[in-house]
Amino acid sequence: MSDNTIIRFEQVTKQYDQDPAVLDNVSFEIERGKFYTLLGPSGCGKTTILRLIAGFTEPSAGDIYLNGNIVNHVPANKRQVNTVFQDYALFPHLNVFENVAFGLRIKKLKNAEIKTKVQEALRFVNLSGYEEREINEMSGGQRQRVAIARAIVNEPEVILLDEPLSALDLKLRTEMQYELRELQRRLGITFIFVTHDQEEALAMSDEIFVINKGRIQQSGTPTDIYDEPINRFVADFIGESNIVEGKMIEDFKVEFANKQFECVDKGLHSNEPVEIVIRPEDLEITRPENGKLQVRVDSQLFRGVHYEICCYDQSGNEWLVHSTKKAEVNSEIGLDFEPEAIHVMRFGETEEEFDKRLEAYNG
Ligand SMILES: Nc1ncnc2c1ncn2[C@@H]1O[C@H](COP(=O)(O)OP(=O)(O)OP(=O)(O)O)[C@@H](O)[C@H]1O
Ligand SMILES: [Mg+2]
């Protein structure tokens, strides 16, 4: 564990009653001062992870460390963690100033100190001058900022944000993404942000945990996860993908669409069935004879920045292509791609198994 680690989950399982585990043997580390995103479909366990970090619930098995100490049974108010909830949970009968001041009053700080801190927090979120406003006179985006000011005023080490942007319209949401990211950089506090929107996760995070059914499927930087999805779930969940079935021939050689291709993957069994991912933007349209694959154009849509072209090869695989070039519907075209564009995935492989496989290969 590095000195920079602020939170660590070690084989944490959370189970309610006799139901199957909501979180199943989850391990990860969170470093100080970074922006993390928990990304996954509804019900996968994102909020449960936040609740465990905040201390609103205890693990059924495993350990949670904060700053190197086990905190499994430490109550929420004894942790340097603040949460911004999806509905902001602001007090409607208090004005903006008092909403932000609430935690400081409980801590019995002096009035002058409270005033300084609240004003500074409001300045951080661009709400100076709104102190006297009632909560119901604020817009959705402004309420969101009040909720953030209320969290940062306590100077926590970690801020947890549970889908804080989901109630906002698209334009405001994009603005707030920039603002939140900027705020995190200025404050240097660790942010753990929950979303089920993959574009939001890619745009905002230093690191993303992709979660499905109570397990972390993959963790890494946005580019890691986008470029090297570890299994079908991740490839499908993050961005648009072509996923076809194939077979590993040997290291650096894979077969799909009844042809063999050079690739950069290794460490699988010879003749092992695999799944292949190629991103639509990694496919280049050529004349049929110059392409690695020959396909027939089925349909084409103009998407503003590129054409989205849907094709089929002779084995019946569908290929989605993003191209600035136009194609002719019903014509035959070639598709060219680099060996690096082919991502080979073992069926249902987890991140742990993937790491072990590469270690075994390298060692
Ligand atoms: N107190 C509880 N008792 C029993 N089951 C619960 C409890 N809280 C959550 N769960 C279950 O745990 C699972 C994970 O819930 P969680 O709220 O962590 O999901 P989530 O990823 O945040 O989903 P969403 O995106 O819909 O908010 C769900 O199946 C949910 O029904
Ligand atoms: Mg949730």
Enumerate the distinct ligands: adenosine-5'-triphosphate, magnesium ion
CATH architect. name of the largest domain: 3-Layer(aba) Sandwich
The CATH homologous superfamily name of the largest domain equals P-loop containing nucleotide triphosphate hydrolases
Taking the alpha carbons of the first and last residues, their distance comes to 23 Å
* Coarse structural class: alpha+beta
User: Got a strand count?
Assistant: 20
Strand order of the largest sheet: 6-7-8-3-9-10
State the CATH topology of the largest domain: Rossmann fold
Give the % helix.
25-40%
**What is the top-level CATH class of the largest domain?**
Alpha Beta
Main sheet summary? 6 strands, mixed
Shape: globular
**Total of helices:** 9
Order of helices and strands: EEEHEEEHHHEHEHEEHHEEEEEEEEEEH
Short description:
The protein is of the alpha+beta class. Helix content is 26%, strand content 32%.
